[in-house]
């Protein structure tokens, strides 16, 4: 979107937040070409920290702008082997009009094309400087000890909730934010606050849900690449880069990995509506995908923990993610083994051609051991049978016919009322169904009852965005109320998981083989 385009309902997810062309004023930014270290872009506030005007810096070499010692430290770090960002912060002392000014230099490279897959991509070295806060040299032992203690606790934790709680508490102690939350996504990227450490006087957000649109898709994609961000003062004035575009490309600088990146004005308004003065969030990833965030708020004023403290919080976030994956995988492996043995038993048993298939599948173990559901109904080789909550035969037949008409191997829905209202099936019995349609009207059908639950939202999610008319255009602004808002979810069962669908797909293959084998023996017997 061209600069100045109002963000509205149609383009919210398209707001290009990685190229804002400006920074937050807690530091300054210089983009330099390599290897000559010539400054090609700077933030307009350069003089605030470095004491040199932007017009005097552009086109000059870094040593002339930052001084020989500081530029040397930056250049050494930039030329060392490996990932540049892992060596941040580089501790540098500037000489500003004769006085030493300690700063944290945060380095990364931004690709500036051509990114055509043919020519090698070129990059600019981006140097961001933040005034050093806290003790210098940075008190590594203290932070290391705090982090090591927490990692030990995480390793000893025995439940997910404990993992979340330890992390929230530790990040709060480390960073000093008024409130630290572990925010976990569901499959649709709606989020829930699953742990919270907060100043006593604050009301609790624990258990509140927030809709997916509060953190749109492009922001989530950016947070999968760059794992931490700080808005140290929500009431800041963005500082533009000069010149606005990278001279060699005519494109804006890609600020995906920039520490000072100016954030979306819509999000700033959201935080202001929430009464938040400073916000930080750390990505929580599983297999490179975002599963949640550690979200931090400060209310009384700006808050800017030093870079090294933020990096320690980021480290705790990735430790939490690893521990969580371990635990989840333990559970999944255990369940998968059980399912495999049930599946093996059932398919072996189907080889006994003297026993009707329906009896075999509803014997012991049965199809409910394979897949948790309230009931299962089968119609195979003229035999009908069921286990668990019974489903009237006509109802089962109607659902199976509906499923067969979809011409898929496995048909699943967690809401018949939404997806097949015409069947008029009572949600008390079968709200969600998983059907294996088989030849000649035969079927296997699992059903789950409605899982009615109440969800506490942080504000009305259906009214989450308020459209406001501004002249000719409609501008989107985030909702203004974050009061607890209760919703009762009806007409839905527990969802069928991808894992369950895959396992049932395997069963189907075996069943088709068994049915085929039996039809051949009948033919042979007749000959
Ligand atoms: C970003 N939204 C975010 C971020 C969070 C939230 C944590 C990451 C940036 C940060 O660290 O502050 C949301 N913050 C929350 C939630 C809680 C919280 C849910 O503390 C709960 C306690 N937001 C809207 C609407 C739009 C929107 C309607 O409400 C879009 C039209 C956009 N949110 C939006 C954008 C970003 C964002 C664009 C990215 C900000 C950036 O990184 O530039």
From TrEMBL:
<keyword id="KW-0157">Chromophore</keyword>
<feature type="domain" description="Phytochrome chromophore attachment site">
    <location>
        <begin position="159"/>
        <end position="318"/>
    </location>
</feature>
<dbReference type="GO" id="GO:0009584">
    <property type="term" value="P:detection of visible light"/>
</dbReference>
<dbReference type="GO" id="GO:0009881">
    <property type="term" value="F:photoreceptor activity"/>
</dbReference>
<protein>
    <submittedName>
        <fullName>Putative PAS/PAC sensor protein</fullName>
    </submittedName>
</protein>
<keyword id="KW-0600">Photoreceptor protein</keyword>
<keyword id="KW-0716">Sensory transduction</keyword>
<dbReference type="GO" id="GO:0006355">
    <property type="term" value="P:regulation of DNA-templated transcription"/>
</dbReference>
<keyword id="KW-0378">Hydrolase</keyword>
<dbReference type="GO" id="GO:0016791">
    <property type="term" value="F:phosphatase activity"/>
</dbReference>
<keyword id="KW-0675">Receptor</keyword>
